[in-house]
Design goal:
This protein has one domain: Kelch-type beta propeller (Neuraminidase, 6 Propeller), CATH 2.120.10. The chain is built from no helices and 13 strands.
């Protein structure tokens, strides 16, 4: 059983796996939106919540995540005011830091929720029931110091 102080049950979250750890971001408790980044590591069978730093993505649900190397990308989702986001965030696992980044593609994806973000060959592909857009991410991006 998961300690409720470490990981709160949620819906509408997104997750990726890197090595033996599951990274879970955002979602809703059905009473409030979450902006937590929680990690479950299979080898230690433990949950931990990443300490918040600045900058940090706002709480959201219905977003999508993709993983390229040791970089986690979060795109879109429904925000606390009910609007749909077109923000693209990158979390660098090794530095434990978030950064909002812009797509380097001439095609800028629209605000979406309920979509997927699939990483293949250092590119993220966004699929939605309304659109299909492929856009390149900054594959050599690092967190600004």
């Amino acid at each position: 059983m998961v300690d409720a102080d470490t990981y709160r049950p949620r819906a509408g979250h997104a997750a990726v796996v890197s090595n033996d750890c599951l990274y879970v971001f955002g979602g809703t408790t059905l009473n409030s939106l979450l902006d937590e980044l929680s990690i479950y590591c299979v080898t230690s069978l433990t949950w931990q919540t990443v300490s918040r730093s600045e900058p940090w993505p706002a709480a959201r649900h219905g977003h999508a995540m993709g993983l390229i190397d040791k970089r986690i990308f979060v795109y879109g989702g429904v925000m606390s005011d009910g609007s749909t986001s077109n923000e693209l965030w990158m979390y660098l696992i090794s530095d434990n830091k978030w950064q909002m980044i812009d797509s380097q593609s001439s095609v800028s994806p629209p605000p979406v929720s309920g979509h997927t973000l699939t990483a293949v060959d250092n590119r993220c592909h966004l699929f939605s029931s309304f659109i299909t857009v492929e856009f390149s991410l900054i594959c050599n991006a690092t967190i600004d110091q």
